[in-house]
Design brief:
By secondary structure, this protein is mainly beta. It has helices spanning 2-8, 13-22, and strands spanning 43-46, 49-53, 58-69, 72-83, 91-105, 108-118, 123-127, 131-134, 137-140, 143-147, 152-156, 164-166. The protein has 2 helices and 12 strands.
Amino acid sequence: MFLFLRRVGAGCIVPLLLVLLLGGMVSAAEKNPVFLGDSKDPLDIVADKLDFDQKNHVAVFSGNVVVTQAKTTLEADKLQIFFAQGSEQDLKEIVATGKKVVVKMEGKKALCRKMHYFAAGRKIVLTGDPSLDDGNNVISGEEITFFLDDERSVVKSGRQRRVKTTIFPGQHGGLGRKSQ
Protein backbone atom coordinates (compact mmCIF):
# COMPACT_ATOMS: atom_id res chain seq x y z
CA MET A 1 0.00 0.00 0.00
CA PHE A 2 2.77 2.45 0.86
CA LEU A 3 4.50 1.63 -2.42
CA PHE A 4 1.24 2.43 -4.21
CA LEU A 5 0.83 5.80 -2.50
CA ARG A 6 4.45 6.65 -3.20
CA ARG A 7 3.94 5.73 -6.86
CA VAL A 8 0.75 7.72 -7.27
CA GLY A 9 1.89 10.66 -5.18
CA ALA A 10 -0.31 12.57 -2.82
CA GLY A 11 -0.94 15.37 -5.28
CA CYS A 12 -1.74 13.33 -8.37
CA ILE A 13 -5.41 12.39 -8.35
CA VAL A 14 -7.47 15.07 -6.67
CA PRO A 15 -5.85 18.09 -8.37
CA LEU A 16 -6.83 16.48 -11.67
CA LEU A 17 -10.35 16.09 -10.37
CA LEU A 18 -10.38 19.72 -9.34
CA VAL A 19 -9.52 20.68 -12.88
CA LEU A 20 -12.38 18.46 -13.98
CA LEU A 21 -14.71 20.62 -11.91
CA LEU A 22 -13.20 23.88 -12.96
CA GLY A 23 -11.51 23.32 -16.30
CA GLY A 24 -14.28 24.59 -18.51
CA MET A 25 -15.93 26.69 -15.88
CA VAL A 26 -13.14 29.02 -14.82
CA SER A 27 -12.12 32.06 -16.80
CA ALA A 28 -9.18 31.24 -19.08
CA ALA A 29 -7.41 34.25 -17.63
CA GLU A 30 -7.18 32.47 -14.28
CA LYS A 31 -4.32 30.05 -14.88
CA ASN A 32 -3.93 29.01 -11.23
CA PRO A 33 -7.18 29.57 -9.35
CA VAL A 34 -6.72 29.60 -5.58
CA PHE A 35 -9.32 26.88 -5.13
CA LEU A 36 -7.19 24.27 -6.91
CA GLY A 37 -5.78 23.36 -3.51
CA ASP A 38 -2.28 22.45 -2.45
CA SER A 39 -0.90 19.18 -3.74
CA LYS A 40 0.96 18.88 -0.43
CA ASP A 41 -2.33 18.27 1.35
CA PRO A 42 -2.72 14.63 2.38
CA LEU A 43 -4.64 12.38 0.01
CA ASP A 44 -7.00 9.84 1.60
CA ILE A 45 -8.55 6.99 -0.38
CA VAL A 46 -11.12 4.82 1.40
CA ALA A 47 -12.73 1.80 -0.26
CA ASP A 48 -14.07 -1.64 0.54
CA LYS A 49 -11.24 -3.24 -1.44
CA LEU A 50 -7.89 -2.43 -3.08
CA ASP A 51 -6.49 -4.74 -5.74
CA PHE A 52 -2.98 -3.62 -6.66
CA ASP A 53 -1.57 -5.56 -9.62
CA GLN A 54 2.05 -4.51 -9.95
CA LYS A 55 2.68 -6.84 -12.90
CA ASN A 56 -0.11 -5.24 -14.96
CA HIS A 57 0.52 -1.72 -13.62
CA VAL A 58 -2.97 -1.10 -12.26
CA ALA A 59 -4.53 -0.29 -8.90
CA VAL A 60 -8.28 -0.82 -8.51
CA PHE A 61 -10.19 0.59 -5.56
CA SER A 62 -13.73 -0.79 -5.41
CA GLY A 63 -16.82 -0.50 -3.25
CA ASN A 64 -17.87 2.86 -1.84
CA VAL A 65 -14.70 4.64 -2.97
CA VAL A 66 -14.14 8.06 -1.41
CA VAL A 67 -11.07 10.12 -2.31
CA THR A 68 -10.48 13.22 -0.19
CA GLN A 69 -7.86 15.95 -0.37
CA ALA A 70 -8.30 19.28 1.40
CA LYS A 71 -11.84 20.47 0.54
CA THR A 72 -12.32 18.16 -2.45
CA THR A 73 -14.06 14.79 -2.49
CA LEU A 74 -14.55 12.16 -5.20
CA GLU A 75 -17.14 9.41 -4.69
CA ALA A 76 -17.39 6.41 -7.04
CA ASP A 77 -18.15 2.71 -7.05
CA LYS A 78 -14.76 1.96 -8.62
CA LEU A 79 -11.52 3.89 -9.17
CA GLN A 80 -8.89 2.43 -11.50
CA ILE A 81 -5.40 3.91 -11.73
CA PHE A 82 -3.26 2.73 -14.65
CA PHE A 83 0.49 3.24 -14.83
CA ALA A 84 2.62 3.27 -17.99
CA GLN A 85 4.18 -0.08 -18.92
CA GLY A 86 7.75 -0.41 -17.72
CA SER A 87 7.38 2.54 -15.37
CA GLU A 88 7.08 2.56 -11.64
CA GLN A 89 5.82 6.14 -11.43
CA ASP A 90 4.30 7.41 -14.69
CA LEU A 91 0.54 7.76 -14.53
CA LYS A 92 -1.23 6.63 -17.71
CA GLU A 93 -4.97 6.83 -16.99
CA ILE A 94 -7.48 7.25 -14.17
CA VAL A 95 -11.02 5.89 -14.55
CA ALA A 96 -13.78 6.47 -11.98
CA THR A 97 -17.06 4.66 -12.59
CA GLY A 98 -20.34 4.07 -10.81
CA LYS A 99 -24.07 4.59 -10.74
CA LYS A 100 -23.13 8.13 -9.80
CA VAL A 101 -19.58 9.51 -9.82
CA VAL A 102 -19.53 12.71 -7.78
CA VAL A 103 -16.77 15.28 -7.38
CA LYS A 104 -17.48 18.01 -4.80
CA MET A 105 -15.50 21.10 -3.92
CA GLU A 106 -16.63 24.21 -2.06
CA GLY A 107 -20.16 24.30 -3.42
CA LYS A 108 -19.22 23.04 -6.89
CA LYS A 109 -20.16 19.58 -8.10
CA ALA A 110 -19.53 17.36 -11.14
CA LEU A 111 -21.79 14.35 -11.74
CA CYS A 112 -21.44 11.53 -14.27
CA ARG A 113 -21.29 7.74 -14.49
CA LYS A 114 -17.75 7.64 -15.88
CA MET A 115 -14.78 9.99 -15.56
CA HIS A 116 -11.72 9.11 -17.66
CA TYR A 117 -8.41 10.99 -17.38
CA PHE A 118 -5.77 10.45 -20.09
CA ALA A 119 -2.32 11.57 -18.92
CA ALA A 120 -0.76 11.52 -22.41
CA GLY A 121 -3.12 14.15 -23.80
CA ARG A 122 -3.92 15.70 -20.40
CA LYS A 123 -7.59 15.22 -21.19
CA ILE A 124 -10.59 14.41 -18.97
CA VAL A 125 -13.77 12.93 -20.46
CA LEU A 126 -17.07 12.72 -18.55
CA THR A 127 -19.82 10.43 -19.88
CA GLY A 128 -23.05 8.95 -18.58
CA ASP A 129 -25.31 11.97 -18.01
CA PRO A 130 -22.45 14.36 -17.16
CA SER A 131 -23.20 17.71 -15.57
CA LEU A 132 -21.31 20.50 -13.84
CA ASP A 133 -23.08 22.41 -11.10
CA ASP A 134 -21.93 25.65 -9.50
CA GLY A 135 -24.83 26.73 -7.35
CA ASN A 136 -27.67 27.52 -9.73
CA ASN A 137 -25.35 27.56 -12.77
CA VAL A 138 -25.44 24.19 -14.56
CA ILE A 139 -24.07 22.75 -17.81
CA SER A 140 -24.83 19.26 -19.12
CA GLY A 141 -24.65 17.19 -22.28
CA GLU A 142 -23.92 13.72 -23.61
CA GLU A 143 -20.15 14.09 -23.13
CA ILE A 144 -17.98 16.77 -21.50
CA THR A 145 -14.28 16.86 -22.42
CA PHE A 146 -11.60 19.03 -20.80
CA PHE A 147 -8.32 19.72 -22.61
CA LEU A 148 -6.21 20.79 -19.66
CA ASP A 149 -3.19 22.22 -21.50
CA ASP A 150 -5.39 24.29 -23.81
CA GLU A 151 -7.71 25.44 -20.99
CA ARG A 152 -10.58 24.43 -23.26
CA SER A 153 -13.66 22.30 -22.84
CA VAL A 154 -16.16 20.80 -25.26
CA VAL A 155 -19.70 19.73 -24.38
CA LYS A 156 -21.27 17.41 -26.97
CA SER A 157 -24.86 16.43 -27.54
CA GLY A 158 -26.01 12.97 -28.56
CA ARG A 159 -29.11 11.14 -29.74
CA GLN A 160 -30.71 11.23 -26.31
CA ARG A 161 -29.43 14.51 -24.91
CA ARG A 162 -28.67 17.99 -26.19
CA VAL A 163 -26.25 20.43 -24.59
CA LYS A 164 -28.00 22.47 -21.91
CA THR A 165 -26.63 25.44 -19.99
CA THR A 166 -28.35 27.44 -17.28
CA ILE A 167 -26.51 30.59 -16.18
CA PHE A 168 -27.65 33.16 -13.66
CA PRO A 169 -25.92 36.39 -14.75
CA GLY A 170 -24.16 38.31 -12.02
CA GLN A 171 -24.10 35.33 -9.70
CA HIS A 172 -20.63 34.48 -8.41
CA GLY A 173 -19.53 31.11 -9.67
CA GLY A 174 -17.41 29.20 -12.10
CA LEU A 175 -19.71 29.37 -15.13
CA GLY A 176 -19.58 33.14 -15.25
CA ARG A 177 -17.71 35.99 -13.63
CA LYS A 178 -19.47 38.05 -10.98
CA SER A 179 -20.73 41.35 -12.33
CA GLN A 180 -19.05 44.43 -10.96
